[in-house]
Design a protein that fits this description.
Number of strands of chain B: 11
Helix content of chain B: under 10%
Radius of gyration of chain B: 13 Å
Mean pLDDT of chain B: 93
Oligomer: heterodimer
Largest sheet of chain A: 6 strands, mixed
Number of helices of chain A: 0
Mean pLDDT of chain A: 93
Helix content of chain A: under 10%
Order of helices and strands of chain A: EEEEEEEEEEE
Number of strands of chain A: 11
Structural class of chain B: mainly beta
Low-confidence stretches of chain B: none
Structural class of chain A: mainly beta
Radius of gyration of chain A: 13 Å
Strand content of chain B: over 45%
Strand content of chain A: over 45%
Shape of chain A: globular
Distance between the termini of chain A: 37 Å
Largest sheet of chain B: 7 strands, mixed
Number of helices of chain B: 0
Distance between the termini of chain B: 33 Å
Amino acid sequence: QKEVEQNSGPLSVPEGAIASLNCTYSDRGSQSFFWYRQYSGKSPELIMSIYSNGDKEDGRFTAQLNKASQYVSLLIRDSQPSDSATYLCAVNIHFNKFYFGSGTKLNVKP
Amino acid sequence: DADVTQTPRNRITKTGKRIMLECSQTKGHDRMYWYRQDPGLGLRLIYYSFDVKDINKGEISDGYSVSRQAQAKFSLSLESAIPNQTALYFCATKTGTDGYNEQFFGPGTRLTVL
């Protein structure tokens, strides 16, 4: 079992819709969770971080964490074509060591 | 100027050659990481370092070695490159002693081994 799992997609949504990206992790001791956006051939850039159960909102982005279910998600409201990218879920499992999911490719159609 | 830089940005080499990828940072972070990315496999950790004297193996360290020359510099070497080391390589930095700070990534090095 991989430490962090994501559906590889692609996930296709129309412009203006809500995109929902999901991630599960295996280690119950995981402390912190990160969502990175990566455009093709570019480096990952941080979108959201979340540490406590519940929701965390930042503009059009909402991260949701459920530690009991070992599940973290990212919602993107009012999706734009510029949101088309691969979204990587990263989990801090052992203090300064991070595990990444394989990423979900999102396509936002105009 | 970019906070985390990697050189070279692209490299084509032949099987058996020794290759060094370099990473420099101006963020003052003590933690530095090397990852490789293959299509469909996400980022996999090769090595990480918490300071000049602390180097640790990651998930896929076989065939690689590293050197932390200074707090700001972390180099990755492929002693004898092989074709399945063809990948996109990223350096990352992080501050803090806990897991609550994000990593910052360099622009990447695209390595092709023929």
